[in-house]
Structure formats: structure tokens, C-alpha cells
């Protein structure tokens, strides 16, 4: 059996609290009620892809605990194939501690738990079984880098397409960059790669064009300004609609998941970016990384 969309990434339990402002070092603030929800970049992006019409297979790991069981139940009911998601006895389910200020900006600390225990040996055989010429692999960097590299190589060898969301930002091998089609980064991640300031649409367009020497195609997200994209066949800017921002936590993941759903369905890069921008704009209007269905 082959899969059209494989999402390789993290699954966390998110603990979110709303605050008037973010605390200074050494300061204690009173916040609102604690909100507990499923999260993690892999799970968030898989759910966003499912809500955009894809049938993603989630490759990742949870612990053999209550959080892990709740995670698999929630994601399975959300349209994600979790039959290949690993349950590990020797590690807890990952946790993210999130504060969201009244203006919608967030800070996040992640304890990876089972996500950090993924191995090449446990994941790559599954990827080889599922990957084919029409497969899109979506990966991020909240799991061990060597697992992402090996999985990307396996999908490329099968003739599939590799999409990497370079988040959290870190140095990655050039060999992985050359497989990315597209590489998805935000302004700060683009700055880390290109070594140039990315503060505007023009800056992002220039950075995207320059980075085409290192990857097959690229998308740079710009928050409220939408996203720019570049490939050997063309480039452009897709502006974002103006909306009331409640919480930016899940916007990037909603964007990437929707983009990959479109790519897995055979869409061109521009159409995929348009779908992603719309999904990101919808996500910021809700509290939490996985907004409810509408």
C-alpha cells in the first residue's frame, strides 16, 4: 500500500494559558484558565491536511500513557491514519507549555518525550513500505534530524516529493536541502538560511530567489502579509486576508498542512500556497494550535 501524504513529526499534549503580557525573567504572573489540547507540529499539520481533504498517515510516537491514548483517539477521529504511529513504553508523550498574550503572540517550551526517541530503524522501513511516485512526505524538526534525513532520502528514492518545514530553526545538511520541494520557512528561519534580513515582501522575494540555488522550491511565510513562493517555473506573493487575531500558535502548522494537502492532490505550488494562506488566516481566529472544525 502506498500513501499520498505521509506526515513525519511530533505529537504533543499542549497546555495553554492566556496572559495579559508575557512575564519577564524571574517574574510570576496570574493567567487565565489552563486549556489542554492535542498538539505538536506533526500532529497539527496532519490535522490541517485532513481538514483540507487529504488522508494523511502520521508517523511519530506517543507514550503509553493517558496523554498518548487521548492523542491517538483525537487524531484518529480527525481523519488521520494513526495505525503507524508508535506507542513507546519507555517515554512519556511529549508536552508543550504555551503562554498566549492578549495580542495573540505566544511563547512555547517543548518537552519532547517520545518524539525524541524516534529512530531511523523504527521509521524508515515504514516509509519505504508506504512511499511511491505520488507520495508527499511532510516533515518538521521537532524529532531527531537523522530520522528526517533518512525518511526524505527514502521518499526521494521512491520518486516522491519532500516538503520540509524548517521549524524549529536549526542547521541542516545541504543534502537534505536539495531534496526540499518546497522548503517552508518563516522570516526568521529564512534569515538564518539566507543570511539576509527578511522584513518585507520584497526582502522575502529576494531571499526566496537566492535560496533556489539550494532547494527545489521554497515558500517563505510572512504572517499577516501572507507568503511568497519561488520555483524554477515561477514565483509570486499571496497576500493574507485581514482578520481578528486571537492566537498565532497554530497558524504556521495550518498553513503547511493545507499546502501539502493541495500538493498531494496534484495542485501547482501557487494554488497550494493560496490554500495555505487561507488556512493560516482561519487558524489565528481561534485559541489553541488545533482550532475546532467550522
UniProtKB/TrEMBL annotation:
- EC number(s) of the enzyme? 2.7.1.15
Where does this protein hold K(+)?
247, 249, 283, 286, 288
The note on cofactor binding and number reads: Requires a divalent cation, most likely magnesium in vivo, as an electrophilic catalyst to aid phosphoryl group transfer. It is the chelate of the metal and the nucleotide that is the actual substrate.
Q: In which pathway does it act?
A: Carbohydrate metabolism; D-ribose degradation; D-ribose 5-phosphate from beta-D-ribopyranose: step 2/2
Q: Which residues carry out catalysis? A: 253 (proton acceptor)
Subunit composition? Homodimer.
Protein name, UniProt field: Ribokinase
Q: Whose protein is this, by species?
A: Microcella pacifica
- Gene designation per UniProt: rbsK
